[in-house]
User: Fold this.
Amino acid sequence: MRILLIEDNPALCQSLKKNLTEGGYLLDIASDGTEGLDMALSIFYDVILLDIMLPRMDGLMVCRELRNRHVEAPVMMLTARDTVDDRVLGLDSGADDYLVKPFSLKELHARLRALLRRGSRGGPAVLQAGDLRLDPAAHRVERDGQEILLTSREFALLELFMHCPNLLVTRAMVENHVWDYGSARRSNVIDVYMRRLRQKVDGPYPVKLFETVRGEGYRLVPPPEKK
Assistant:
């Protein structure tokens, strides 16, 4: 799962980066509202963690603009403002949850799992393609009822394909979704991860779900539903 943290406190950013990465999440960080909005509009995120008091554009404005631009990722406000009016204002701006600083990391993880169980607004909480099933909240993948153990990057890669079955997923899309924003990567690393993922998801099964589109990328093609 990929999370965007929009927060201008460097110490908190580093603490959350370490904790969430160890918890199996991929985390991008923006230090002001304008940068965060640009990132949220250009990359798919499973959850957005959003401070209210931000430079350049405050969190309430960012959240309203995300909803105006039809970004449906769940938004959790992280803020020291703890009055009822403040919470109502945050939720009315389009946020899905509101966590008051200082907060327990245990509670943050529980709330993240709850948001992931709900899924994006109007979208399924559990993704399915044929006999392949991915549960973001439980961080679990099954095929034909058998669990498939994936690394955090392999999980994020499969989740990307599960969100857009039958559609071409380009190498650029994979880079944007699976690697940290702005991080360097070797040219062949995508092929390495795709090979590992296909070995785990397709290798033991007679029906193959992945296709290679030569020179362009890959496609997940679920089998037609039986009538």
Observations:
- The mean pLDDT is 87.
- The radius of gyration is 18 Å.
- The chain has two domains: 2-118, 127-220.
